[in-house]
Structure formats: structure tokens, C-alpha cells
Amino acid sequence: MQPAFQVMGRHTIRDDAVKMYKGMKKDIEVELQNLDSRIFLTSDMWTSSQSLGYMSITAHYINAEFIYKKKIISFAEVKYPHMDYAIEEELVGCLTEWGIKGQAVHFDTG
Prior knowledge:
alpha+beta; 4-stranded mixed sheet
């Protein structure tokens, strides 16, 4: 290894990653809340070999410069059993966390 390379500790790396995540999330929240267009959501759900359910939610939208954007706004484990109420709970929690209002959203499951 390069002797001039300074190795960072795992706590420093974790703290830097969390700080970067929070900054990027805030930027996306501001962009979503200031949209003049609607947000289209898609989701995908799958089950791991350990029978754990996971769901991702992607927001699709057109920004003020008329550029198509898509952002994964949630990737979470879904409570077992993976029935409609568990999926709904995760979806509503995601929309609440991001401050997305229902009238601006269209949803499609993948």
C-alpha cells in the first residue's frame, strides 16, 4: 500500500456517509416539494432466500427545466406477512417521511 495514504476509521467513514446521505436527502426533499408537476411512483418487491421481504420505491418526475428524473426514495424490509396492509404501511410511511402529498402522486406496482 501507499505509505502516504491515511487510513480512516470505520466510524469516520460511517459518519461521513451519513452526513452525505442527509445532505442529498434534504436536496431531493426540497426538489420534490417545489415541483410544479406530479410525481409517479413505482415499486418493486421481492423475497430473499431467508424469506425476508424487501420493497423499493422510486419517484419519477419532471423538474422545472423539463428534465426527467428518477430517485429511489425507499428501500426497506417489509414486515411479514407480505400482504397488502404491510405494503401499504411501508408506502404511507415513505410518503410521510418525504412529505409527498397524495394529490400529486400516481402509483404503479411493478
